[in-house]
Amino acid sequence: MSSSLEFNPVNSVYLNLPKFSDFLNGNVKICIVGLGYVGLPLAVMFARKFKIIGFDVSEERVRELQKGFDKNNEIDTVSILNPNITYTSSLADTREAALYIITVPTPTTAFKIPDLSYLRSAAGMVAQVLKKGDGVVIESTVYPGCTEEFIIPILEDKSGLKWGRDFWVGYSPERINPGDKEHYPDKVVKVVSADSPATLDLLASIYGEVIEAGVHRASSIKVAEACKILENTQRDVNIALVNEFAMFCEKMDIDVHEVLKAASTKWNFLNFEPGLVGGHCIPEDPYYLIYKAQNVGFFPQVAIAARRVNEEFPGFVASKVVKLLVKSNLNFTTARVLVLGITFKANVNDVRNTKVVDLIHELENYGCNVDVTDPLAIAEEVKSYYGLDLISWDNVNEERVEKYDAVVLAVKHDAFRKLDRGWFEKVLKEAGAIVDIKGVLTREKIRELSDSFNCWRF
User: Fold this and answer.
1) Which of 219, 253, 276 is the last residue before a domain boundary?
2) Other C-beta atoms lying within 10 Å of the C-beta of residue 281
3) Which residues constitute the domain of residue 56?
4) Are residues 166 and 40 in the same domain?
């Protein structure tokens, strides 16, 4: 297949393209495929101006949204129940759409290679309802070339249609940040790309109608695909540097947060905090870069090194817990450890690819008995993803008979910032250990607690 994205203008799909006005007046609809952390905000945003079909294979998810409930706590009921959105789990209901935007997850396998199974399934379903003149846009994170090499063949094979003659494609990397109300999708510049000037014009007009920050037209689909993995690989590299520097500061008995505060006085310093690197973007996207780079004979040394540093960080934290237990004359092979927080970031309930689980496993490998609590995480999801039973946060706050040997603050939830001496005295043994990975507790509070407990924080 040609990678130039150039078609014969006489027989091209451009002759059958719907007009932007057709979308604007509701004559044709936009279908969002996948209604998770990316798809639902996108559907709600587009519904301000367009008729939307929200499609998800989960019947339970669709039923919840039809009632105005978002279990992810990202979108309010009024926005969900916008009459411009129709939620469905029936593929046949999506046939009215002329534009299909795929927003399914693209994780990695246990061997750290791209897992495109969700994308394959979504493209296969869209192909079953694809009509002449329709467009398919991918928002899922992929490696450069994936849309052309992987998606288009599926669409052609399953639909019987021909790309460039019967349907068109585009790519627009998602920029959703769960829990971030300041950088809502319409407040962030949207990168758009498509397979021709005509389709790019149409796509830019559609996104531009709802993106207040404006759109950036990438020169090609590969450029847009590459920009997405660069964005998160850069963050991964920066966090790896700070994590490595934090471990160095620990050896030197230097407060890394004080160093970061001082360094931040320089106008061009990028202030990243040390910590576990989890979630569905930063720890995953670099592997898409690494996979494709090695595929074309290139060895991305910096990206690989950053991944190694961040993947080893849970082991470093577990060793600190054990050392503090030994310092407290407590037997780490039978120690009871309470981990506070299991979501991948602060103040969200998203537990996908959380590295707190890696920390738990590292502690268990030492022989520790680990309990986990989180005021925001959904217990059923934690059980489903990781086989772990959460301890109720409400129960933890009640009087306990058997106290813990150590408490590990793993996530910077607001609820944990309020913990005081009385709370720790209630749940911790005398001279027990407190490990604060994310700097949840202030330096002053740590000093106060150090009178009774062995404390360590970044």
Assistant:
1) 219
2) 23
3) 13-219
4) yes
- Scored b (16 or more CB within 10 A) or e, 237-270 reads bebbbbbbbbbebbeeeebbbebbeeeeeeeeee
Cα 288 from Cα 114, distance rounded (Å): 6
* 156 lies in some domain: yes
Q: Are residues 204 and 66 in the same domain?
A: yes
Which pLDDT score, from 0 to 100, does residue 285 have? 94
pLDDT tens column, 379-414: 999 999 999 999 999 888 776 668 999 999 999 999
Give the end of a domain, one of 219, 238, 256.
Answer: 219
Distant-in-sequence, close-in-space partners of 457: CB < 8 Å, separation ≥ 6? 434, 435, 436, 437, 439, 441, 443, 446
Q: Is 54 inside any structural domain? A: yes
Query: Measuring CA to CA, which residue among 190, 261, 195, 203 is closest to residue 231?
Result: 190
Q: Tell whether 323 is covered by a domain.
A: yes
281 belongs to the catalytic site = yes
Check 31, 146, 281, 368 and give the catalytic one: 281
Q: What is d(CA 229, CA 140) in angstroms, rounded to the nearest whole number?
A: 11
Q: In this structure, is residue 383 part of a structural domain?
A: yes
State the pTM of this model.
0.91
3-state helix, strand, coil in the chain (%, to 5): 45, 15, 40
Task: Report, as ranges of residue numbers, the positions in the chain whose pLDDT lies below 70.
Answer: 1-15, 179-180, 399-401
